[in-house]
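quick one
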Amino acid sequence: MSRRISILGATGSVGTATLDLVGRAPEGEFEIVALTAHSNVKALAELAEKFRPEIAVIADNAKADELADALKGSGIETAAGPVALVEAASRPVDWTMAAIVGSAGLEPSAAALQAGSSLALANKECLVCAGEYFIDLARQRDALILPVDSEHNAIFQSIYPGQDKFIRKITLTASGGPFRDWPVEKMKSVTREDALAHPVWSMGDKISIDSATLMNKGLEVIEACRLFSLPPEQVDVVVHRQSVIHGLVEYIDGSVLAQLGSPDMRIPIASALSWPERIDTPAERLDLARIGQLDFEAPDKQRFPALRIAREALLAGEGATSALNAANEVAVAAFLERRIGFLDIPRLVSDCLEQLDADHALPQRFNGLEEALRVDRLARDRVRGQLASVSA
Ligand code: NAD
Ligand code: MG
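structure w/ magnesium ion:
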């Protein structure tokens, strides 16, 4: 029997990697219900022609006619705007890939869980901004959250069912990003191109910048605590430049289990797509003799303050982590537009958190998704205000 699936953020790096695997599956194995994208009509229409979903949705309202024209006569339903996106995500399916970038993914991902779909979660922002809400919702709907972020997927695979209560700590590996060996003086003049040139992984722009500041690892520590119900002190980070080991779980008896594989997102995506079974992937096989050596080192907290800022936010609670994420999204977008320098990113985020904390605007726990989105908007406005005053 074919499985009904939807892919939110189908045109992105994770979305296209997911469709690559779906395209390799035997005919009839998957029936695609919804494919969605932000504003690239051409890319979405091409994927829709190839994968024949029930509906294709473009989040940008202004692109409604363009998408309808592009798919005219195809028999594929089209829709546009954030409300249509949530409606499409709510259509009954067995499995949904949540691969929208940023907090724009919160409402559609929540809608999929609400409808009872298993949620393959690439969009770490869901757990960073509203972790309790998502974990509770999955529990209430008896729906699985399958982590797609490679480190979390590795840890998920390394926990034998029922043994989570014996975990002493988990470790997320970090490649260290393109500036892992750069002196701080040189980091001041990093360009957009330098920061987008990730040494190991090929990813969307936003997460590539986050990997360069190590904010990505900070967001992942928060994601891990919420996903695996662990306190911050039980989640470690180690820089491992080859990105061969993705995550490790240490148990109370001293056993450490880990998942290894070549750095190709199709491996964790395949794990989530086929769980609890396995499927073949075209990913490069791991050849340890050729790799020869695996290196590990502690992250440099001085040169990469984002990791510390994220840990402080985690201790402060959900309001702080939601604000951290929103402030970072705005700062990264400004860096990508060449409006601010690389080292301004963590500084803007930290300033925003300090201000909102002083205003008592950051609740320790949220009461529902709307509250998380309210803090998200507040933090965005704060950073935009700061950017406007800098450029004025
Ligand atoms: P990407 O930028 O390549 O793709 C993002 C997708 O989201 C696109 O389809 C885009 O059209 C859509 N989108 C963007 N803004 C939107 C909006 N406002 N409304 C609706 N749709 C919108 O990003 P990516 O690298 O594929 O990452 C997606 C998510 O997966 C992120 O949360 C990222 O942190 C996470 N992730 C990615 C990787 C990776 O290797 N790329 C690894 C781990 C986790
Ligand atoms: Mg990751």
